[in-house]
Every structure is written in structure tokens, then in C-alpha cells.
Design brief:
The chain is of the alpha+beta class. Helices cover 31% and strands 23% of the residues. It is built from 16 helices and 23 strands. Pfam families: CP_ATPgrasp_2.
Length: 482
């Protein structure tokens, strides 16, 4: 196979798993067709494709919001034109592992809001659960339809230097990014229309249809056309583009809190012809802001009385309220034990080794090795508030230690996992950049379905390990081969 200058100049990062090149510096088989195709394109052609992708993202309003940036609110989501490719065998392993993990986590949520056997049997300490701000006593003994709590999840996966997949985070509350997965594929179809069928790339476009089918099945009223709405915090939310996209693709109403009202423990949508009863709410509003009568009384984003309607079983809410306790990074450390406890199975996907700083011995060890650790808040997200020990100054480490000592339970530490690298097209050259993977799983009455792909996020800055869009990351299309 003839390689072009793009690939002759590409140099994998030492000690890092490269998605395109094997240890022997040979191209992995599943990347060959893509390399042959790109090798036949001039730099001018690829630059035009990159420019077209940017124009398409801009014209379709594919943006996200950065809250701590002085550059204004909305930014275009950077997109890399070279796809990330996953073999059928790798995907089968990932899919099996995610299904196992979600099954156990769903059992855990039902258990801690009902019988709490896992606490009574000493598998998860009671103080870890009760000190979690997302453990909501309002959900205790509340039955949810089909006992499903985690209708939608985005499990963050990374690969270490030997190619092993690890679960970095379980996003079980209001996971975002699926619209970028769908839009990335649509744009790739425009850029490389012949390449997708040649490579046998599996489709991701069924996601909205599967989600809609699952939402329909949750309706408490057995009627032909239940009313489904997507509840958004509004235009200033970082994922508002996603809310509008999913509502449009599913053909459901996009609403805000002010569009809904509760009467007689039922939720209604205000329409031009009067009130219309709502059966299922796909909410993208966090628990704290969902019902000002129960949670944050200052909230203008939720609906007063919605919790009462939920408790009475008159409306289904997706995802279930109170899921955040299973998202807590201190609880994350116990997921392997949950899998053994509830399913009597060994975990397929590994956790990243994690130290809980609420444990004095572990805190002592972490403090001695801060320069080799990534420290995170147990309820942080979006890459905010992390300390990357290998890149931090002595002063930053000392300041962070003071923060930890105020509330040790609110921090965990993980060794710096290298993250695999994939080729990215950067100013006419191919460069390795670090990536992760967020596949999206949909849990319905018929089981768990995962569309073959997901959102591959890219740390676009050279040497960076932070892939979050809020921290300067981008994304690329994810191809799962048939």
C-alpha cells in the first residue's frame, strides 16, 4: 500500500496506544481503506473538506456554550475530519461490558431507594450514600415504570497504553453530546460519501427512533398517542442545540418550565387551544431545578408540583430523578462490587483505579503522589475543577490540597491514564491527539440498546489529556465496522 506524505510524517506518541498504528509501526487493518482514500487526496482537497465541515456546523447552528470564557457565549464545536474506527470485535466487547454495567447500576438505584440490601450487606458503606448530595430522600419508596431508572446514559471510555478499555465515568443524569454524534455522521456522509459503504460502517441514525419508542412505552395512560415533551432549561443552556435537535428528530414538543403546569397531580402543557395532558417528560433540567416546591425554591426552570405528579404515577420522567447518587465519583469506585453483588459476574469493563480522599490512608498516599494523579470533585463535570498533577505547579498542588482538606469526601484521585491517540488533520498534516469515547445506551422495557458508535472527543491541544468541549476539545465521527 502506498502511503502519502500525510502518513510518512505521522509519528505516534511513545508509550501511548495508537488507534491507527500497531506496535510494529504497521497500519492496523481496519484503517487501511481510509488511509488509501486520504492518500489519494491532495492537501488542497482535504482543506476544502475541513472548511466545508466548519461551514456546515456554523450554518446548522451546531454550537455549545462555554460559561467561563470571555469570548462570548456560543462556540462552534471543533470537528476533525479523520474518523475514529472501531472493529466489530472491539465493539462487541464494549457493548457487552456497558450492558452488564448498566444492568448492575439500575439494580443499585432501585435497591438504595427501596430495600437498601447493598448497604445492609456491607458492600457499599452507608455514609458514602447518605453523604452524597444527589441521594434524594424524596425518591425513597417511589416506584418508577418498569423499574427503569437509567433510560439514557453516556458511558465515558478510555484506552490505556496496552489498549485496555476502562470506564472513566458513568453519566446517568442528563448525558449530553448525542446530537454531535448524529451530526458528525451526517457531515461525514457529505465529506466521504463513498467511503462509508466501502468500509461497511454501521449506522447511528436509529438513535432518535429507539429513544422515541422507549418514551412511548413509558406512558402511564394506555392511549394511542401519548403526549411526550422534551423539557429544556432554555436557550442559554450549553446543550440547547441538542435539545432542539432531539425534539425535532423525534417529533415531540420542546418545552420550558413556563410551558407546563400541574393540576390535580397531573402535568399539562399550555397550548393555543387550552391545556393538554403530558404523559412522558424527557427532561434536560437537573434534579435541583425540577420542582421549586421540593428542591431549589428559587428555580425558574422547573414546574411547581411535578414531583407530586411523578409520585402519583401520572407522568413518567426520563431519566429518573435521583440518579446522581450512582454518578457520584465516590460511588463509582464500588461499581465492580455492584456487578458481583447483583449479577454474580466478573466486571467486563474495568474501572480506572480510584482513591477516595475521604479515607485518611488513601488521602495520605495521594498527597505524596499528587504529581502523578488526576484529582476530581466527586460531583464535578465538564472538566471543571480538576487538577492534572503532572501539569500543575507546586503552588497549584499546595492550594488544591487545602481545598481537599476542607471536604475530603468530595474528592477522588486517579492515576494519570495515558488515553489512546488517533490521527487528526491539523493544518495540512496528520498529528496524533488523545481521545475518549462516549457510547450512548438506551434502556427500555425490552432491554438495553446501544447504537454502534458514539461521540469520540478529542483533546485538540498538543500534549493535552482533557477532551471536554468546555476545555477546548473537539470531536470526530466514530465508525463501528460491520
Amino acid at each position: 500500500m502506498q502511503e502519502s506524505a500525510y502518513f510518512n510524517e505521522y509519528s505516534p506518541i511513545s508509550g501511548v496506544w495508537d488507534e491507527m498504528y500497531g506496535d510494529d509501526s504497521n497500519v492496523r487493518d481496519h484503517y487501511r481503506k481510509v488511509i488509501e482514500y486520504i492518500s489519494g487526496e491532495s492537501a488542497d482537497d482535504l482543506n476544502k473538506k475541513e472548511e466545508l465541515a466548519k461551514r456546515l456546523f456554523m450554518s446548522q447552528g451546531i454550537t455549545f456554550t462555554v460559561y467561563n470564557s470571555g469570548e462570548g457565549i456560543e462556540k462552534i464545536f471543533p470537528f476533525d475530519i479523520i474518523p475514529r474506527i472501531i472493529t466489530a470485535a472491539e465493539w462487541a466487547f464494549v457493548e457487552k461490558g456497558i450492558k452488564q454495567r448498566l444492568t448492575a447500576l439500575n439494580h443499585f438505584l432501585k435497591d438504595i431507594y427501596h430495600n437498601q440490601f447493598i448497604i445492609k450487606d456491607g458492600i457499599v458503606p452507608i455514609d458514602v450514600i447518605y453523604s452524597c448530595p444527589h441521594f434524594l430522600r424524596e425518591m425513597y419508596q417511589l416506584n418508577v415504570p418498569y423499574d427503569i431508572y437509567i433510560h439514557i446514559s453516556g458511558i465515558d471510555l478510555i484506552r490505556d497504553s496496552d489498549g485496555t478499555f476502562y470506564v472513566l465515568e458513568d453519566n446517568l443524569r442528563t448525558p449530553s453530546g448525542v446530537s454531535y454524534m448524529l451530526e458528525n455522521r451526517e457531515i461525514t456522509k457529505r465529506l466521504f460519501p463513498d467511503l462509508l459503504p466501502q468500509c461497511g460502517v454501521r449506522s447511528v441514525t436509529e438513535y432518535p427512533a429507539i429513544l422515541y419508542r422507549n418514551l412511548l412505552a413509558l406512558s402511564p395512560r394506555q392511549i394511542a398517542n401519548p403526549t411526550i415533551v422534551l423539557l429544556s432549561p432554555g436557550i442559554y443552556n450549553s446543550a440547547y442545540f441538542e435539545h432542539t435537535t432531539l425534539a425535532r428528530l423525534m417529533g415531540v414538543e420542546l418545552v420550558e418550565g413556563r410551558d407546563l403546569v400541574v393540576k390535580d397531580h397531573k402535568v399539562y402543557m399550555k397550548t393555543t387551544v387550552g391545556l393538554q395532558q403530558v404523559d412522558v417528560i424527557y427532561r434536560r433540567v437537573d434534579d435541583d431545578y425540577l420542582d421549586p416546591l421540593v428542591f431549589n425554591p428559587q428555580s425558574m426552570l422547573g414546574v411547581a408540583g411535578i414531583m407530586g405528579a411523578y409520585r402519583k404515577g401520572n407522568v413518567a420522567i426520563v431519566n429518573a430523578i435521583g440518579n446522581g447518587v450512582a454518578d457520584d465519583k465516590a460511588v463509582y469506585t464500588y461499581v465492580p462490587q455492584m456487578i458481583k453483588y447483583y449479577l454474580n459476574e466478573e466486571p467486563i469493563l474495568k474501572n480506572v483505579p480510584t482513591h477516595q480522599l475521604g479515607n485518611p490512608d488513601e488521602m495520605d498516599y495521594v498527597f505524596k503522589n499528587m504529581n502523578r494523579m488526576v484529582i476530581k470533585r466527586t460531583n464535578g463535570s465538564g472538566g471543571y475543577g480538576m487538577l492534572m498533577g503532572h501539569a500543575a505547579s507546586d503552588q497549584e498542588i499546595e492550594d488544591y490540597k487545602k481545598e481537599i482538606l476542607k471536604e475530603p469526601r468530595n474528592f477522588i484521585a486517579q492515576p494519570t491514564i495515558s488515553l489512546s491517540a488517533a490521527p487528526c488533520y491539523m493544518q495540512g498534516e496528520l498529528k496524533p491527539r488523545r481521545i475518549d469515547l462516549r457510547p450512548y445506551a438506551l434502556f427500555g422495557p425490552d432491554g438495553i440498546e446501544i447504537v454502534p458508535g458514539g461521540l469520540t472527543r478529542v483533546a485538540l491541544k498538543e500534549g493535552s489529556l482533557v477532551v471536554n468541549s468546555s476545555q477546548g476539545g473537539g470531536s470526530k465521527d466514530t465508525w463501528v465496522l460491520a
